[in-house]
Amino acid sequence: MNKYRAMGRDRTPADFQKHIQSLGIDLPFDPQVETGASSPLAQPYTLRSGFTIGNRFAIHPMEGWDGTEDGKPSEYTIRRWRRFGMSGAKLIWGGEAVAVRHDGRANPNQLLINPANLPDLKALRLALVQEHERSHGSSQDLLIGLQLTHSGRFSKPNSKTKMEPVIAYHHPYLDEKFGIPPDYPVISDQQIEALVGDFLNAAEMAAEAGFAFVDIKHCHGYLGHELLSAYYRPGDFGGSFENRTRFLRMVTAGIRQRLPQMQIGVRLSAFDMPPFARHPETGVGVPPTSLKDDRCYWFGANPRNPLEIDLTEVFQFMELLCSLDIQLVNLTAGSPYYIPHIQRPALFPPSDGYLPPEDPLVGVARHVRVAAEVKQRFPDLAVVGTGYTYLQEWLPNVAQHNVRAGKVDFVGLGRMVLSYPCLPADVLSGSELDRRHICRTFSDCTTAPRSGLISGCFPLDEYYKALPEAATLEQKKAALKPK
């Protein structure tokens, strides 16, 4: 049973302020949301390239587990992307995490970019643009990118239940958690160099499909992110900060050479922590009771206490992005595989997860604070923030304050647009929010794929409610409940 106050109970600014004060956190918000051309969230943002993004809402990339086995979009994928276009957001950050090769797919139905799938990816992007133009008019100020990924340690390219990890190094905590033996092979320097070539080929295809930028994914425990914490890996891709960022620098240099006009973004887990586990009696997530050694295995964490954030290397990473002329930065945290309450604050965990060890609003404030610290130190970066969905009715108020105060440039939305795709448009137009479709973080969009089903908002999206998978999901959730 959750002991935290549900966001839906905060019906007035005074209620919300009291909730914030009771937690002792810093989370300012604007009591009134502005509309019209003067609204902070409606302001355009002009990149150094000269392109102007029409407003301050962004859509995060999300995997739907609903592509075809050969990596093409399905009718479910196309519907989701059309709804991204309908949203009114003017920055589409990838729409979807797309694997650059088969062994890097996080599931057997993840989108895969290759010559055979290119016409379908081109049509998928076009479907988004057409829906945006139908709903909102011009798409001249709409910036659409494609997130390129290799899932690394969390690869499941051939089975929904069998992991086929590609690891950058042996991680004592994650190896134990996910059953990776000590003699399991580590990706070699030569194999990483070959993967760089796959990213470059993928970037060329993304450009051919009409995407304006590619995101070189460095978050959530996937391979790019894991390389950042490869402190004890030997060779050219481990040890020093220079070596641990070599992969990014090689991919960036190759894109600049092949595609001078292509923009580059990076979605980064700006901090990480050791894995939490479900307490056998309370069901609440708990961190490790003791550390295995005095080494640090977490990027953005205090080496002496990995449960504390240390942004020293994060700022160094931002300096590197500036030197590489990468302006688009999307900040997230941790990983859904081992610290979901840090990565995406929610009141209700996935059925195979743990109850939140803190009020999720504390997690939101953590996301907001880190993004603000990065933005303050690097004002020329175009920073996208994460963690806003849990705010629910108060999302526009916090979002407006943060953009107006210069704490972030774009408010990124993920789960919220699965249930309520038109929230950005409604906020900008001054329409009353549709409470029936506000995401309440039930986490079925995560429980479903972890149960081998497609991802979607089964509780609130009428389309998914009517699918046969909805009944199957309820059966699987019942089977996963602790006895």
Characterize the structure shown.
- By secondary structure, this protein is of the alpha/beta class.
- It contains 17 helices and 15 strands.
- It has helices spanning 13-23, 75-86, 118-136, 172-178, 189-208, 223-228, 241-244, 246-258, 312-323, 340-343, 360-377, 395-404, 416-419, 423-429, 444-450, 462-465, 468-480; strands spanning 45-46, 52-53, 57-59, 91-92, 97-99, 143-149, 213-216, 263-269, 277-278, 285-286, 301-302, 305-309, 328-332, 382-385, 410-413.
- The chain has an 8-stranded parallel barrel.
- A hairpin with a 2-residue loop joins β11 and β12.
- The model has no long low-confidence stretch (mean pLDDT 96).
Task: Briefly characterize the structure.
The protein has 483 residues and is an alpha/beta fold.
Give short descriptive properties of this protein.
17 helices, 11% strand, 483 residues, alpha/beta, 15 strands
